[in-house]
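Hey there, shall we discuss this one?
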Amino acid sequence: MTPSPLGPLDTHPTPLMGGGVAWGDADLMPLDQVHQFAYCPRRMHLIYVGGEWSDNAYTVEGRYHHMRVDGEEDPLPDPREDPESPKSSRSVQLSSPSLGIIAKADLIETSGASAEPVEYKRGETPDNPHRAWNPERIQLCAQGLLLREHGFSVERGWLYFAASRQRIEVPFTEELIEDTRRCILETRAAALCVLPAPLQDSPKCYGCSLNGICLPDETTLLTQDPQLQERPRSEPRQLSPARSEALPLYVQTQGVHVGKSGETFVITLKGQKLAEARMFDTSQVCLMGNIQMSTQAIQECCRRGMPVVFMSSGGWFYGMTSGPMSRNAPLRLLQYEHYRDPLASLRFSQSFISGKIRNCRTLLRRNAEQLDPTILSRLKESAEDAESATSVESLLGIEGNAARIYFQAFSSMLKSTGPGASFSFEGRNRRPPRDPVNALLSLAYSLLAKEFVVVLAGIGFDPYLGFMHQPKPGKPCLALDLMEEFRPLVCDSIVLSALNTGQVGIGDFLVTPAGVSLKDRARKAFIESYERRLDQLIRHPIFGYQISYRRVLEVQARLLGRCLQGEIPNYPAFLTR
């Protein structure tokens, strides 16, 4: 991770981790919100309006350095006490209706009617004229103004930089006080407005834990008009990791119990430990079938914002348990408004379906052994027809016709020699699937739908209200919308690979009058293949950097949000080349 030369923001406490700030009084604004605004207005809006949060090494280290001062709150002494009685008070909560802010100060050093706030910082002392960054000076000065409201005389404060083990004096000059009061007013006003524009090529973005949420360079790129050739497009920086280190935990052995031991999930069967997984390395817990999970483990998942997904043993998605609903109510309101607008719904649906058809065509072009060339031209025409459709109903007709063309040619991607030759495919069928290929396709589509439900709910969308798929009880319509362009790239591709390489053989299926399903061993192997596919690094066709499919799903969902917010003009479908 490249540190920001402007000092990465080691905020504490984080507003979504349950500590530090009293949220009961809606009229009082947390001082951290002002601090965030001084650092980056967009970051403030994402955290305090959108309810977004993500940790990185800087924020985790910042919380560590605050552990000593984050104990139980100490009361401030009476400022009329004997001036010869100095006292240090830690974790002091201060508020002021006149200033409109509330804060928890790390340390207040008092001596009678005189007080000096001390704020702890993770990093090193900055090499600039003030020996401190402006957001930290404003944060400290605001604490000084709060102390003045409580009757203390406050002329200065101190910033303690843990890496340098150095205290830096911050005099509360009239200029700094004026800047602080103005910043408080501007923060309150900005929280009522639309999401501020991203910083332009700012070094602050490198140390920001929200860069993968904010997408500053990607947003800037997509707002540029491609018709204006004289304005060069800037190359986006890859500010967030190409792939996530935390992965889903699938529990598939029937009858097992998932419990919690410290920072670890422990999976047992009749009291015997079968496996364990570190919570730090887990992004979600998927319980497939008859699996029990302890209340303590579920509570810990909720506290960490880690979804617990419930599925049938065959992979049918039932639902999930998570922590409190995302606070991003403005995003859901925009989603509902666009849903009620037929033209907006059509515009998004056109991107989803056109992207799907073009990616189906690419998959056929790459993998078919013998293919009627008219099929590719017909799919190309279907994609163009989708882009010019005049209603969602006509678009669904175009999509259905393109799907028939595609699946009629699907068997040409099964190798005529080797393991793939054992399978035949005559068309798509489901509920239940009546042949092995359709059984694999249905499982893969269910897994991908689950993935999008988790992503969308975490961002703040309502996964059950889409633009193309019509609402039905229990149907995650928006997840189904967004997964359209990824069906061929992720699901169909995995199925073809599993069959053509022999990872799943003809003997790995249970064939009954009720349909065809995978045997346990083969299902586990197929899910492992699915997860490897999501973790595979590819080059993003628009942004040009290396990124995993798992991260692409999140980026696409966030770009949809940016489009709803009017920040980018169109939703860019993910098209492979």
Q: What stands out?
A: Confidence is low (pLDDT under 50) at residues 1-8, 12-25, 227-232. The chain has three domains: 29-207, 247-321, 329-564. The CA atoms of residues 457 and 463 lie 6 Å apart.
